[in-house]
Design a protein that fits this description.
The complex is a heterotrimer of chains A (about 260), B (about 375) and C (about 350). Chain A is built from nine helices and ten strands. Chain A is of the alpha/beta class and about 260 residues long. Chain A has two domains: about 10-85 and about 175-255, P-loop containing nucleotide triphosphate hydrolases (Rossmann fold); about 95-155, no CATH class. Chain A has a six-stranded mixed sheet, sandwiched between helices. A four-stranded antiparallel sheet of chain A has the order 2-1-4-5, with helices on one face. In chain A, strand 9 (about 225-230) and strand 10 (about 230-235) form a beta hairpin. In chain A, helix 3 packs across helix 4 and helix 3 (about 100-115) packs parallel to helix 5 (about 155-170). Chain A starts with 7 loop residues before the first strand and ends with a helix. Chain B has a domain at about 5-265: ABC transporter involved in vitamin B12 uptake, BtuC. In chain B, a hairpin with a 3-residue loop joins strand 2 and strand 3. Chain B has 18 helices and four strands. Chain B is mainly alpha-helical. Chain C is about 70% helix and about 5% strand. Chain C has about 350 residues and is mainly α. Chain C has one domain. Chain C has a two-stranded antiparallel sheet. Chain C has a two-stranded antiparallel ribbon with strand order 3-4. The termini of chain C are far apart. The chains are: A alpha/beta (about 260), B mainly alpha (about 375), C mainly alpha (about 350). The interface between A and B is large, with 47 and 43 residues. Chain C: This is Branched-chain amino acid ABC transporter permease. Chain C: It is found in: Cell membrane. Chain C: It is a multi-pass membrane protein.
Chain lengths: ~260, ~375, ~350
């Protein structure tokens, strides 16, 4: 493992992932700095989602390791990875459709406070006023307070994503992973989400964003890694990446 | 007020009404012709079984097809406690609950590694194993097909230490030698446990734990990525519901000190599922109502026979009468299970939410004209007791 | 060694029954995506086709012989089945071979039952949760078995096998071993052969007919097949009918080995589900392999030598294997990954 400076929160060290004979990821080395927003872009099939799945423990890398804040995440269960401070927003919203919006937002806070398992079946949910107030406050922040008593399953797709983001934010994670947070959203909703994510950035939360939408990427990212064919072909500030001929050839060329 | 006992006003009201309904059974069941002790004991015992099952299936969505095994374990344990130690029901019940809990822990630990239909089949496999073993190798413990019974020469060490003597007839379970556990006292004894059990489930429903279980049913992946280790949650729910089943099995033995392996058969597990579904899965009261309805109609339908039917339809012309009796006799007496199966199919097909869903629909029919076409837009109130 | 071989043979017929039921279960699950708890009832209904046919064939006419008188002084009654009176020797032959003849009755009956069941009930549950499918078919299974109980009573009804094959084959001698060591009833051998033929026919049907190809494609990817404009639903209904026929025939032929009663279906159903899970949900070869494997294992476990080591093992071996398989290899022996792992 390479030595790194103290600001590195997440280090994806020399990760390979093969499916059968297919190299989905090769020689991936990523260093994510504390407090920064790091975007990973690349054409379809470049391996972006595979990379994210390796980070959150859904897939085990064939070789290499993922280190978060000095702890090796490789081989850990999803809930353990969350408990050390990594939260994830999915491409298709993963929420609790049968619970109310308020309950959806309260649950992550309980996980943060009580850990991965507590036997609290004799206490009352009604007594959790602190977490409840915090959840209502969070819903206010994302502009969803009005629908807090609705069943989450009946929300619009855009609202589901916003709520999922709110759920992750309730945990004050040290690292937030976002998998195409604006996919399928209208321009208006996309802009609201960008504003929201900018607001989070001011709080100093580290974020990794996987995104198709260049508008989103260039409005948010401090640093961009470009993935193509399972390899990182370029890395740098938005300006550097924009001007990199390799990137233009592999990715931006057709798009712009 | 102690924080442990803080309940919302609505919960307190529900609890008080429920307790009153249970305790007043000997009065309000009179007009239904169901106010006799044996049946009321069944109401209480199967009520306990159903609410316990509901903690697992209703909250977590894990469909166990093996709960009858815990019922059987509870019964065997209770009868053995009677035989070896004392006819007092308290130690018998404590041991029955503990044993059923241990069994549930072992079976749940293995079965919960899988979900969906695989979980159902694993529990079914374990229950069938228990059933087959109870009939074969474990005969020294279970007394095989005859069933485990009390005998005059049973040691009953605690009872004999207190100098109880045998009068040549089989003893009856009794509370410290004061009240015999049959008839109306037996019913009240079971009823108290039903009320305690109801209180516990009410607490679980209103607790963060209960919300976690619902969340697991709703989306297990999100639970994991939210930092919860879901397996201990489901295992706890499984053990709790297993202990309820053990308690019910123990109470069966208290009111009638006999335990047979057929109590563990998978059709018995199916009946538990049925009660819960009929009443309303995941609701607090539904499973109890389901259990009562099934036991009530079982009692009525089984008692019918052809001569009763002939009397009933005597007003019809002869040929028609014969035909009607022929048809209806399929559904009563021995044919009660046919009726049960039909009801079951109808409920699952048209009313998967059970009776409680039915009541709600009827209620909403009166509240808003024209039913629930506006559903997607309406603000659905929280089904959970967050408020 | 001989004993093991004999037990191995003994497992084949039971294994054949498990395989036939599991095959149908898997077909229904793979095509319709429905977990059918009433599939065992179809096996039971098949068995009762045999019972019914035999009842019909042995309806007797009663004549009195004026010449002869019984010890009580009443005229001697002569009872002859109508078929014998009408068809003579052929009638007697029909009575004797009532079980194999029942297959001819079972095929149309089971087809009708299967199609009615699918169109009338199962169809409405395609998109409902698996728990509800399990529950509604469980209810249906109860209803079917209670109807049978109403008409046929609760006691097992023995069905004789044709007298020509009533004996046993000395397989040991045929294989050059000592005679009279490995003696195996003909009917069990026939059942095994029958199950192999039926299984082979089903596989050939799926493999070599256009219909089968469409169904297999549908099992793999229902949406796509629907998109290219093939009415897959109609074919799936036919598949359900086919599964019902297979289960019914399996039931018919099993009657001489085990007198059928109304809860025969439930008994076999639980085992067959275990078989399906062990073989791998959705895998046809898996279902067949696991059926025979478990039948043979069960038979081996009931050897006294083995029972002496682990008492009661014969009672639980199948479930034990299922538990181990599910834990170690959750998708079963030959199953695809992720089927029904909600």
């Amino acid at each position: 493992m390479t030595t790194e400076n103290d600001n590195i929160v997440l280090h994806v060290a020399d990760v390979h992932k093969t499916f059968g004979g297919l190299h989905a990821l090769s020689d991936i080395d990523l260093q994510i700095e504390e407090g920064k927003t790091h975007a990973i872009i690349g054409p379809n099939g470049a391996g972006k989602s595979t990379l994210l799945n390796v980070v959150v423990g859904r897939l085990a890398p064939t070789r290499g390791a993922v280190v978060f804040d000095g702890q090796v995440l490789t081989g850990k269960q999803p809930h353990e990875i969350n408990q050390v401070g990594v939260a994830r927003v999915f491409q298709t919203p993963e929420i609790f459709p049968d619970l109310t919006v308020l309950q959806n937002v309260m649950i992550p806070a309980l996980a943060k406070r009580d850990g991965s398992f507590t036997l609290n079946f004799m206490s009352s949910l009604a007594d959790e006023t602190e977490i409840r107030d915090e959840a209502i406050h969070m819903l206010e922040d994302v502009g969803m307070k009005a629908s807090m008593d609705m069943l989450a399953g009946s929300l619009s797709r855009g609202d589901k994503r916003r709520m999922e983001l709110a759920m992750c934010l309730m945990q004050h994670p040290r690292l937030l992973l976002l998998d195409e947070p604006t996919a399928g959203m209208s321009r208006h909703d996309t802009n609201t989400t960008i504003d929201l994510l900018k607001k989070i950035k001011e709080r100093g939360m580290t974020k990794v964003i996987i995104e198709h939408d260049m508008h989103v990427v260039f409005s948010l990212a401090d640093k961009i890694s470009v993935l193509a064919g399972g390899r990182i072909i370029a890395e740098g500030t938005p300006e550097e990446v924009r001007n990199n001929p390799k990137v233009q050839e592999a990715y931006l060329g057709g798009a712009h | 007020m102690n924080k442990i006992f803080s309940m919302s006003r609505k919960d307190v009201l529900t609890f008080v009404i429920f307790s009153a309904v249970v305790l007043l059974m000997p009065i309000w069941l009179q007009p239904f012709g169901a106010a006799y002790p044996d049946l009321m004991q069944k109401f209480a015992i199967f009520g306990i079984l159903a609410i316990g099952f509901n903690v697992l299936f209703g909250l977590t969505g894990y469909l166990s097809f093996g709960h009858a095994a815990f019922l059987g374990v509870g019964s065997y344990t209770a009868v053995w406690t009677f035989k070896l130690f004392s006819m007092n029901p308290i130690p018998a019940l404590i041991l029955a609950v503990i044993m059923a809990g241990l069994f549930a822990l072992a079976i749940g630990y293995v079965s919960l590694r899988r979900s969906g239909i695989y979980f159902s089949i694993l529990t079914l496999a374990f229950a069938q194993m228990s059933y087959n073993l109870a009939y074969s190798v474990l005969t020294p413990i279970t007394n095989g097909e005859t069933g485990l019974q009390l005998e005059l020469q049973d040691p009953r060490v605690i009872d004999s230490a207190f100098g109880s003597t045998s009068d040549g007839s089989l003893p009856v379970s009794n509370l410290f030698g004061l009240v015999d556990m049959n008839g109306i006292p037996g019913f009240y004894f079971c009823a108290v446990f039903l009320i305690i059990g109801f209180f516990i489930t009410q607490r679980i429903f209103a607790s963060p734990f209960g919300m976690m279980l619902r969340a697991i049913k709703s989306n297990q992946t999100r639970m994991n990525y939210t930092g919860f280790n879901t397996r201990p949650y489901t295992l706890t729910a499984f053990v709790i519901s297993g202990m309820f089943a053990g308690l019910a099995g123990g109470l069966m033995a208290v009111t009638d000190p006999l335990a047979g392996a057929e109590r563990m058969q998978w059709t018995a597990s199916g009946e538990i599922v049925l009660m819960t579904i009929l009443g309303g899965v995941g609701t607090l009261i539904g499973p109890v109502v389901g259990a009562w309805l099934i036991k009530y109609f079982e009692n009525i339908f089984s008692s019918f026979n052809e001569s009763v039917l002939h009397n009933l339809f005597a007003f019809l012309p002869d040929g028609v009468e014969k035909f009607v009796v022929e048809i209806t006799s399929m559904f009563v007496g021995e044919g009660w299970h046919l009726t049960l199966g039909l009801i079951f199919m109808l409920v699952v097909t048209f009313l998967p939410g059970g009776m409680m869903e039915g009541f709600r629909r009827i209620g909403s029919l009166f509240n808003r004209d024209g039913g629930d076409k506006a559903k997607p837009n309406e603000k659905t109130p929280a089904p959970a007791p967050a408020e | 060694m001989d004993a093991i071989f004999l037990q191995f043979l003994n497992g084949l017929d039971k294994g054949g029954a498990y395989a036939l039921i599991a095959l149908g279960l898997t077909l229904v699950f793979g095509t319709l995506g429905v977990v059918n708890f009433a599939h065992g009832a179809l096996f039971m209904l098949g068995a009762f086709c045999a019972v019914t046919l035999r009842k019909l064939l042995t309806l007797e006419m009663v004549a009195t012989d004026p010449e002869k008188v019984t010890a009580w002084g009443t005229p001697l009654e002569i009872r002859t089945p109508y078929v014998e009176a009408w068809f003579g020797d052929f009638g007697a032959f029909m009575v004797d071979f009532s079980v194999p003849f029942s297959i001819l009755l079972a095929i149309p009956v089971m087809l009708v039952i299967g199609v009615v069941m699918e169109r009338g009930l199962i169809k409405h549950f395609y998109r409902r949760p698996h728990a509800e499918q399990i529950l509604v078919t469980f209810g249906l299974a109860i209803v079917l078995q209670e109807i049978i109980k109403h008409y046929f009573g609760a006691n097992p009804i023995p069905q004789p096998m044709p007298s020509a094959v009533g004996g046993a084959a000395d397989i040991g001698a045929a294989l050059g071993m000592d005679p009279n060591v490995i003696v195996y009833p003909w009917w069990r051998l026939i059942y095994f052969a029958f199950s192999v033929v039926v299984i082979g026919a089903v596989f050939a049907f799926l493999q070599f007919t256009t219909f089968g190809m469409v169904v297999r494609a549908g099992m793999a990817d229902r949406e796509t097949v629907g998109l290219i404009g093939i009415d897959i639903d109609k074919r799936f209904t036919a598949m359900f009918g086919l599964a019902a026929i297979v289960a019914g025939m399996a039931g018919v032929m099993y009657t001489p080995l085990l007198p059928p009663d109304y809860h025969l279906g439930m008994d076999f159903l639980v085992l067959s589900f275990v078989v399906v899970v062990v073989g791998g949900m959705g895998s046809l070869p898996g279902a067949v392999a696991a059926g025979f494997l478990l039948g043979i294992l069960q038979s081996l476990a009931s050897m006294t030598e083995i029972k002496a080591i682990i008492p009661g093992i014969d009672q639980i071996i199948i479930y034990l294997v299922a538990v181990i398989i599910l834990l170690v290899r959750p998708r079963g022996l030959l199953g695809r990954r992720g089927v029904m792992e909600s």
